[in-house]
Amino acid sequence: MIIENKVHWALDKNLCALLIHDMQTHYLTALPSTLRSAVIAHTRTVAHACMEREIPIFASQVPLSQQSRERGLMLDMWGKGPASGDQTLHPDLGLDTDVIRPLTKRSYSAFYGNDLEVMLRRLGRDSLLIVGVYTSIGCQCSAMDAFMRDIRPFVIADATADFNLSDHQAGLAHMSRLCARVIDNDMVCESLNTFP
């Protein structure tokens, strides 16, 4: 699939942060094993590149709900959400959790119900790399929310995944037209090496 980006923002390692979106066991188990392995591997690559360059890393996590009403309308659409033990980052990511800032969210967007925007502003970051699941749902909503806050979203196509290829491609196409620049792992590494 060829993505035609409407914008061609430059990616500056000194101005960006990484969002690892919902890479929890609960959400990843819904993917076929080969796709799950691929998105985990690509996410790990991007995360390590960011860690090496001291780029802030946030990981959105849907918390364990003590009561059904805590889920709101998400209960109607998706059920109870993560169970005990499934709400943390997938262990196969193999990331040093000491350098990752956990971000509690209770709906699709990683900006919902927390101070992600405030933290990005305080860190002097006006761009957000987005990896994770699901491309056409939470990743897309987070990209749109970033855009509406004048934070440039960069969605990494091969480090995001969806229930199926058509949803993934539709999400990428939608974001590239409306709110984000869609790139891949190689482009990220090349861009991050461009700036001193």
Care to describe what's here?
The chain is built from 7 helices and 6 strands; from the N terminus they run βααβαβαβαβαβα. The protein has one domain: Isochorismatase-like (Rossmann fold, 3-Layer(aba) Sandwich). Helix 3 links the parallel strand 2 and strand 3. Helix content is 37%, strand content 18%. Helix 2 (33-52) runs parallel beside helix 7 (185-192) and helix 5 packs parallel to helix 6 (165-178). The protein is an alpha/beta fold.
Write the layout of secondary structure elements.
Blueprint: E1 16-21, H1 25-28, H2 33-52, E2 57-61, H3 73-78, E3 100-104, H4 116-122, E4 127-133, H5 135-148, E5 152-161, H6 165-178, E6 181-183, H7 185-192
Parallel strand pairs: 1-2, 1-4, 2-3, 4-5, 5-6
Helix pairs in contact: 2-7, 5-6
Descriptors for this entry?
196 residues, alpha/beta, Rossmann fold, 7 helices, 6 strands
What coarse outline follows from CA principal-axis ratios?
Answer: globular
Helix share, percent: 25-40%
Largest sheet, strands/sense/barrel: 6 strands, parallel
**H/I helix tally:** 7
Cα separation of the termini: 32 Å
For the record, what is the CATH homologous superfamily label? Isochorismatase-like
Structural class based on helices, strands and sheet pairing:
alpha/beta
Our count of domains comes out at: 1
CATH class: Alpha Beta
Give the C-alpha Rg: 16 Å
